[in-house]
Write a structure and sequence with these properties.
The protein has one domain. The chain is about 55% helix and about 10% strand. It has a three-stranded mixed sheet. A hairpin with a 5-residue loop joins strand 1 and strand 2.
Length: about 100
């Protein structure tokens, strides 16, 4: 069964196709110095992809993807999820408003 195509709407309005590899590389970067099993990381990546596809929407915002990634990172054992947040291209003010209140 072929997976439906999902477009990601970037903050500047550009659209690009959902890219599992981008999510994967970001998550691996966030946990690279942590003793987390590859199977656990891959499960988190697969869960994000399933969530995106299960939404059934042809388009989803990059912010929604970012929230999914953060949620999964925060659930990984000893992950650097909190340190990863600024790399999701949140502005400093937005980052502090969202995560430090």
């Amino acid at each position: 069964m072929e997976m439906p195509t999902v477009a990601i709407i970037k903050k500047d309005g550009r659209r690009e196709l959902f890219n599992r590899t981008k999510i994967s590389s970001g998550i691996y970067r966030a946990v690279e110095k942590r003793p987390i099993a590859i199977a656990v990381i891959e499960d988190a990546i697969a869960a994000i992809e399933r969530e995106v596809r299960a939404m059934g929407e042809p388009e989803i915002s990059s912010e929604q993807i970012g929230e999914m990634v953060i949620s999964k990172l925060d659930k990984l054992p000893r992950s650097r999820g909190r340190q990863y947040r600024p790399t999701l291209k949140f502005g400093i003010r937005e980052y502090h408003e969202r995560f430090h209140h």
